[in-house]
Amino acid sequence: MVSTQPPNLQVETGGPAAPEPTASHPHTSLLDLPDELLLRILAELPAKAGELMTTSRVCRRLHGIAQEQVLWAHLFHAAGFRLAPEYASRAVATTTPPGTWEDGEYAPAAPERQSLLSPAKWLAYVYDLLWPADLPQPGTCEDMEDGVLVHYPTLFRARCAIADEMKARGPHHVYANPNADVGSDQDDDAPLAQADDMLIAPNHIWMLTEHTAKVYSVRVHGSWVISASRDRSVKLWHLPAIPCDGTKIAHGPSLAASAEGHEGSVLALDFKVADATTGKGFMVTGSSDMTAKVWEIDWGSGENGEGTSARVVCDLLGAADRIAAVAFTDEFIITGSHDHQLRMYTNESVSPLRTVEVGPVCGIALSSRGLPRAAVATTEGRWAIIDLSTGERLLRGGEGEDGYGCIVWVDDYILTGAEAGKTILYSGLYAHRMRTYRGPKKRLMRAAYLDMANNTILSAGHDGHIHFTDLDSWEHYRSYELGGAPIFGMDVDGLNLVFGTGDGAVGFVLYGNGLPYAGMFV
């Protein structure tokens, strides 16, 4: 057998040697580049913390460049995180961290002299390299007294820790019934839950029992919470401000006011903190007495809600059965009753507009995109999207197999809580069922929340748990154990989760308590 050599392969050994590379072709190492160019190269890496951490391990010089504040600020915004508007324009980068992390726990550092980045260097990188025009531009404050020093690697780590906590990931204690008289902190000696421990306790929770009967509905906006109960009252709660320096809040929520106006159980409520025309709060409630009421809220003038009050300004009559759901927009007030009718009123004059027959209503969800539309769920296991301007049914869904207990509408998703422990996800465009999660107990799901930012579904109901389900895999991975009482209502805003229970308690879960910059996040 004769073997042939591949073309261009040199096999002769007696010929002249190949020429050596000459000095006229120098090779430049990556580390020969100036710091500014290396920083620009790192800025082109995928916006992931792992990329920066890997680079920082190469050598001491790259470690220093990988800690540049502008890179971590870019990472913070690329992850979808944001600062509250009152802080976004005041953030001033500093290279001095406010504390240290050890085993996932944060400890504030003693005050030190801060080292600020050069304003010229900071703004040049931000405007020329990293930031689209529609994102807030970090920079320096003309008046340093108004500036807030931010160490962006710490800011990013703290916000990631809060995201994990909101998803019931990360460090949590195994369930121990919280003592409402003690406060929020779990027993430090309680064992930490392992990855496969399904039942956990929130890290910071208050259970307040000012109501004397079941709490059917809760809503939270900013620093205010309102709860509605079978005891015929609505109670207004004030949430404490969250510190920015990594210290824990000294006290939990406080009861600011209690008001009564219905002759039956208050089953549903919705409110907003400030009306553009009056500066007062605005609330709508629905009751088993077959009426809905419009309230005006005076938030008082004290830091903890002193002087807060609520009064009924209008009654909405005409229902022939209990009103189990209410909602409002800038144009409309909507009520849903077990008499199968959805009623719409003008917000300005509170006069009736139209009535649409939909079935025994158990929940109303407004369009998250601000459209004049509402998704309405019934106890018969069906839902519909209604045009509030015309009363037209735009879309119908649900098979009628399992009665519903609640409905959520976010972007193009409709989420319903149903009987038999089911949480069902539908397409808000085509009405087809996408996924169904069946809980460990076959009880009615009365409340749900679709957390798109954290890719998580929260559901709660008569089994007394708050369940966490991954939106992509539909895996139920953890549940809050909260004492066993049924949960009838749940709401989330910012870093606060609030729920109402069948034993008259209002539960307040605070995320990020004790983490740096927590009070600056939205």
From TrEMBL:
<keyword id="KW-0677">Repeat</keyword>
<dbReference type="InterPro" id="IPR001810">
    <property type="entry name" value="F-box_dom"/>
</dbReference>
<dbReference type="InterPro" id="IPR015943">
    <property type="entry name" value="WD40/YVTN_repeat-like_dom_sf"/>
</dbReference>
<feature type="compositionally biased region" description="Polar residues">
    <location>
        <begin position="1"/>
        <end position="11"/>
    </location>
</feature>
<dbReference type="InterPro" id="IPR019775">
    <property type="entry name" value="WD40_repeat_CS"/>
</dbReference>
<feature type="region of interest" description="Disordered">
    <location>
        <begin position="1"/>
        <end position="28"/>
    </location>
</feature>
<dbReference type="InterPro" id="IPR036047">
    <property type="entry name" value="F-box-like_dom_sf"/>
</dbReference>
<dbReference type="Pfam" id="PF12937">
    <property type="entry name" value="F-box-like"/>
</dbReference>
<dbReference type="InterPro" id="IPR036322">
    <property type="entry name" value="WD40_repeat_dom_sf"/>
</dbReference>
<dbReference type="GO" id="GO:1990234">
    <property type="term" value="C:transferase complex"/>
</dbReference>
<protein>
    <recommendedName>
        <fullName>F-box domain-containing protein</fullName>
    </recommendedName>
</protein>
<keyword id="KW-0853">WD repeat</keyword>
<feature type="domain" description="F-box">
    <location>
        <begin position="27"/>
        <end position="75"/>
    </location>
</feature>
<dbReference type="Pfam" id="PF00400">
    <property type="entry name" value="WD40"/>
</dbReference>
<dbReference type="InterPro" id="IPR001680">
    <property type="entry name" value="WD40_rpt"/>
</dbReference>
<feature type="repeat" description="WD">
    <location>
        <begin position="208"/>
        <end position="239"/>
    </location>
</feature>
<feature type="repeat" description="WD">
    <location>
        <begin position="259"/>
        <end position="298"/>
    </location>
</feature>
